[in-house]
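As noted in the main text, all predictions were made from sequence alone. Below is one such record, for histidine kinase.
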Amino acid sequence: MYRGEKKSIIYVLGLYLSSTLLLITTLFISYYYYEQEQFAHSEKDLLKKYTLLLTQQLSELNEKSSERYRYPRFNEFESAIYDIDKNLIFSTSKDIDITKFKDDFFTKESNSYFISSLTPYYFGAAYIIIEKKSKHLDILDNLIFIAIVTIIITLVTSVFLVNLVLRPMRENIKLLDSFIKDTTHELNTPITAILTNIETIDSSNCDEKTLRKLKRIKIASQSISNIYEDLVYILLNHRTSTQNIDLNLKEMLHQRVEYFTEMAHTKKIDFTLDIEKDVYFKADKKKIQRLIDNLISNAIKYSYKATTIKIILKYSSLIIEDEGKGMSKQEVKNIFTRYLRFDKSQGGFGIGYSIIKSIADEYKIKIDIVSKQNQGTKVALSW
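Prediction:
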């Protein structure tokens, strides 16, 4: 999975799923309340019919002259009758309680209830209550089941659609990645040849104009070489073996400062070194060189002309401080974002600090950056 692809997938999936689930939830809730309302109307109408049926049975019993009466019973529903003071006269169900009634119709758990006034007062009854087993909860159960199935289908569909949408981007990234790798590989030979030939040129017989041209060629070649090394690190870092050895940081810093001296002199920039002896750090030489090179090249790139770059090496810290443009707090906050460039007028791809952060994290090196606009930037590494 390419860099940024995971973030894109999460973003698209999140947006698609959240909007879809919001729509589904709204529809399901609306449907549920609509069905509940329809159910309540139909249940109430049915219980009214049962009330009329029971009232008719009570009327017929009341007209009979007998000492004993058998209260009417029905398979479809239970019932109860209460007097004017809401005292129970008779009930076919122990669950019926007139004190629970606030409305003439309500549902509780799996039962529906309906209360109605009874006139005339058959057997002294003033209220009649009907209780019926209800299946209204099946609506909610069915909706939950449908919702789960819908969510699963939506998730599968969204993953398929995201992959379908990202396929062209993946192919283009793969093609671009292959092109960059091939180009980077092809650059190695000419860059090495240019630098080698420049070093072997006998400059003692060259006039001043030719020497300036050779210096410019060397500086340009070094810049290309730095870009090449950065690209190699980004593209092949995870495929190359790491050889951690005890590095003499004093020697390495002197070598890298000498390497960048001519580049710095084009802007009349000087180096001041405060380096302790015998400072060793166990790491891969190429990676630490990339870290130091990026710090120094950035300091040169963003320094004003005729200024000084300070390099301080202590037992457990390295500080590189320039007198340049500096950065805002927001820029410092986002400095390690790859391909992000704050100053478009300067060259580069915006990968230097990303490489610095990657190597520092690998070797548990802490990075502190203090920068003030138009005053300069100080980068402090500690371990």
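The chain has seven helices and twelve strands. The helical segments are 5-63, 137-200, 208-236, 249-265, 285-302, 329-333, 352-362. These features were considered when defining construct boundaries for the mutagenesis experiments described in Section 2.9.
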